[in-house]
Amino acid sequence: MDAATLLLTGKAKTTDSIYRRVDSVDAKGFPPAVKNLAKQSAGIAVLFETNSNIIRAKWTLPAEVYMHNMTPIAHSGLDLYCFQNGKWQFVSVAKPAKGTSQNQLIVQHMDGSMKQFMLYLPLYNGISQLQIGVQKDAVINKPAQPAINKTKRIVVYGSSVVQGASAGRPGMAYPAILQRRTGYDVINLGFSGSAKMEPELAAYIATVQADCYVLDCIPNPSPEQIRDRSHYFIKYIRGLRPNTPIVLVETVFRQNGLFDQQVGTTVRRQNEEIKKTYERLKQEGVKNIFYIESDKLIGNDHEATIDGIHLTDLGFMRIADAILPVIKKAMNEKK
């Protein structure tokens, strides 16, 4: 079954290539790095239901990828969940082999009852083709009652942490965790190393319908860029979306900044600058804006990163725990 005929979640808009995050026309004015990252499939998932006792996947990648701080499953593999007893349950993964053409068994020996599944796509690679295989006499369809409510939407814009570095598998990036916990359509606009609040990104994000915007984009810009860009960036979005809640998230504390004084100083200055912008916006009377400080995000035991910067699955669970209550508060107050 061609996955393109099933139900896709995690897409901001229709795109010219179905498994890319941003259409090439929309991305035309983006910085080159963001334009390339927008081709990747982070946060996109396929919803379907089947009574098959096996599920396979066949997918084509544009390129082989090596990343020193990520598993191949996360950057180029697939991650399968099943909706059972009112919640999403991890099933298994499709592990990429060498090369760009992939064909993997994900799960077998299931009981043959009709179940709803969600298959997350790669975080740091693209997909040109995807087929989902089931046994010959089985049914596979779009879900009759999707467990993801696509009429409710959260848009998350940010850095490599938002895109998913260094989750163990695609479903452990924190936007995906938020999606499963809320049942809402969550759009991952994480652009690794390149979320620098350029005006072109504000112009695009403001065109993406949302019930809440999460701006977790402080790790990448310099303190000076935050000072110069953040007020315009947020006010632009607010101008086009006057009633939609905006959640500002400080940069996660870099654990290596405890010892590297230059890193520690930069992180402190980044957070100081976005806090100044937040206070300025409040003084200007901007409503429905919420703020999460760095010390609330990943705990204080210094065990939540893989390299001092990017999060492990433990770190992603913690940041989801921190952000979700603020999103719920923001969306409830909007009502």
From TrEMBL:
Residues 151-328 form the SGNH hydrolase-type esterase domain. InterPro entries: Ester_Hydrolysis_Enzymes (IPR051532), GxDLY (IPR032740), SGNH_hydro (IPR013830), SGNH_hydro_sf (IPR036514). GO terms for molecular function: hydrolase activity, acting on ester bonds. Residues 8-140 form the SGNH hydrolase-type esterase N-terminal domain. Gene3D superfamilies: Galactose-binding domain-like (2.60.120.260), SGNH hydrolase (3.40.50.1110). Pfam families: GxDLY, Lipase_GDSL_3. This is Hydrolase. The lineage of its organism: Bacteria, Pseudomonadati, Bacteroidota, Chitinophagia, Chitinophagales.
